[in-house]
Amino acid sequence: STVDATTRGTPSARSESRGTRGGQPPEGTTEEVSSREIPSAERAILKLFLELHRDAVEYLKANLHEDDVTDPRVNAIIHRVLQAVDQTGTFDVAAALQSTDDEELQTIMMDTVMNRYELSKSWETMEKRIEREDPMKVAHDAVFALRNSTLKRAIDQNQQAMKSAARDGKETAEYLRAHQELMMRLKELEGTGRKA
Question: What is the pTM of this model?
Fold first, then answer.
């Protein structure tokens, strides 16, 4: 499980292995990362962590893998939440906002907590959607979406590597086996996604 951000899944742990310092992206990538929109499934997961829905958070910690959450800003905030929970047993968004020097992370936290509902065309539509979503359903749906995305990304990367190996006259059997395994995992995931 990776969203156990107190260890290997954290941005700082990953950045150390890439040779960056302080959990910051390598030089030259900050603008690219900050201008990127956070994927909706990752934003949903972040909201569950910020609102500390304990059952959903435990489910996410047990079911997410290191590669599932791709936005380093989301990982950084999740790490802060888990660190606070480990130290104090709870998480206070207001206190986190005050103790965070990173304006971008502050904005992401505020936007995530304040925007309870999807943007709608009018206030009337929003008022009709007052009923909150079940945190466990949101967690299940988000894990499914992230796993699906991770597997499709792995399939694409494997296909590119297989094409490159074929162009270079290298053996491709290993890539074919990996492709079959990834496709089988994707089918299994899609089967479980339909049942949920």
Answer: 0.65
